[in-house]
Amino acid sequence: MPNQRQYSPADRLLLQADAALRTLLPFSGQPHRPTPAVLKNEAELSDSEARHVAGLMRINHTGEVCAQALYQGQALTARLPRVREAMERAADEEIDHLAWCEQRIHQLGSHTSVLNPLFYGLSFGIGASAGLISDRISLGFVAATEDQVCKHLDEHLEQIPQGDEKSRAILEQMRTDEAQHSTAALDAGGLRFPAPVKFGMSLMAKVMTKATYRI
After folding, report:
1. Contact status, residue 84 vs residue 4, Cβ threshold 8 Å
2. Positions at the binding site for Fe cation
3. What is the pLDDT of residue 171?
4. pTM of this prediction?
5. Helix (H, G, I), strand (E, B), or coil: what is residue 100?
6. What class has domain 44-213?
């Protein structure tokens, strides 16, 4: 990755616009790793099972859209170069999840959420605001967000039909990666958010999941 510290503020804005397009346009994000589902057999799912799994994967895809926006917003306003670079690395890793979920959704005969641009904009604003407050708050927000994502992934893994090895493999790898991102953010100096703040974030996450399950 090029050293972002050599870029002007205008350059960074253009890079953010490019990142937004690569996140929101179908099949534009190129994964760095092959999908964990590639060696798994396709399951024989009923129509209702396929719709349900597609809904769960659509939620996870939108979650990755939000993660991209959050990291890009934080990278734009981070004060310390090392924090900016950490955010950019995390965004690159989340591209894998974004691409894996999108591919699986289409394999199940469904579509990504039409609400993704809205959630991208909201998440970008939250990330940029957190970065403006302080890098410690920004890193703490990453850790708290990834903790919420891990909880959702655990819930989805319980709901995935036992025979759906492809979806399960994707979610299990995502669960591992997200937990590592949370730990890394705290180790880098992130603030541990108190329980009331995490509860508020959980309520916001529920709004997103209910809205994107079908649309």
Report:
1. yes
2. 64, 94, 97, 146, 178, 181
3. 97
4. 0.86
5. helix
6. mainly alpha
